[in-house]
């Protein structure tokens, strides 16, 4: 700002506020003058205009959101109306400070703020009331949770799984009741119409083929029942055919077509629930009940986040490795090579390291605790060889099933601090989180989980998966495709029998995939894969010691004028 008469400068700035219908408090005016004094004479006017335009936009937006009420909801809560009838708005020092801070941020600052990690044990629970047809987002402050909950919580866990799938199914055109006239016309023209889901309790005494939605349960050894919120009925699966891709296991929620024969449900056809895209689910749930990160309190903030996403989103990159065996000297050597390759990159990617962090469990080994601590300290030393990566790089460590910690029950807590103290001291941005965990990148939600889901689903499959003669994929690739579809159709990371995959009953919601995230990253010991299903990316980085493979995932890349995701399969050569 040009050095002239301070009083004249003050009057000029105050007049600029008034011309925009703004009244400025004295402390805010002093702060504005201090900001302009840091600028040269040529740029000070442009800076003043930019700040005033942003202030006016925020106050007008908050005024519209508040219905023209008394106090605006602008940044810092700093905008007030003067009097009851005046249209002038007051600019406070706190509001001015927020605006200046936002305008001063560079792309790196925006990208840093766009990243948010959510631990499984702090994840809010999306609850659905079937009677009121209402969603509620329950935080850990709104309900008391325990790792060792009462037995009734197990019942509630399965009831909520079923309720979420049921409301999803009832929105589909195939099961949505239509007007009589419309139904007749569509049936006559298309040879079909809508179907009615029959509750299990209504099967008794009714003949004919019925459509049902229920959970497969094993009440007696080797005998399976279909259960919904009303009752359960034994099933005869001897003539059942599977209509959809995916594995059907105990505790799977399935659509069934069949008829009652001598007190048993003779199943003709069975399939997975119809999927629902993330956007369709969000439209139903609403912003307030879907913001598990508590980062988007209003539609205006969501729009602003998407604008930042377009401008800065392409800078984000995730380097993902699974089975990072720290007890393998060759793995440690390859990690050194990997970090050296990113040393000169700005901004740095987010490094996601998934367990298991040793090739064999060390819990029962002599001096296992001391050995494991030494492995993480050695990893810290390798990271610190690359100063830029150590100081600025973000590392997220997701435990595997054989890593130190509590029993192999999902979700798994982070690796205890006792083992990781040296690494966390030397690498300031290293975070040890739960399995699974979630990361927000701008408006995108990414889920990270380490488990061998493909082999578990194959071992527990009740009916042979559907074969598609038109599908040219190999046998192993088809198994992967079935596993991905099972997880996303069921809306759950572990759609398995409880004895084979125990779950903390009151934290089952942390494993649910409803609404679908933008990406699900599952560290599995099968070959690498990248699938897109219902607009959700599903990927596996592969086991790092097996060929030293990893993936580089970009949630936002501009392709053909739109923002899409991109994946690169990578390998560290010998």
Distance between the termini: 59 Å
Which spans have pLDDT < 50 for at least 5 consecutive residues? 68-78, 81-86, 180-191
Shape, per Cα inertia axes? globular
| C-alpha-based Rg, rounded | 28 Å
Structural class: alpha/beta
Rounded average pLDDT = 88
Please give the largest β-sheet. Answer: 6 strands, mixed
Q: DSSP strand (E) fraction?
A: 15-25%
Helix content: 25-40%
The total strand number stands at 23
Tell me what you see in this structure:
With 574 residues, the chain is α/β, with parallel strands linked by helices. 34% of the residues lie in helices and 22% in strands. The chain has a six-stranded mixed sheet. The chain has a six-stranded mixed sheet with strand order 16-15-14-13-22-23. It has a five-stranded mixed beta barrel with strand order 7-8-9-12-11. α5 crosses α10. The longest helix is centred in the first third of the chain and has 25 residues. It is globular and about 100 Å long. About 5% of the residues have low confidence.
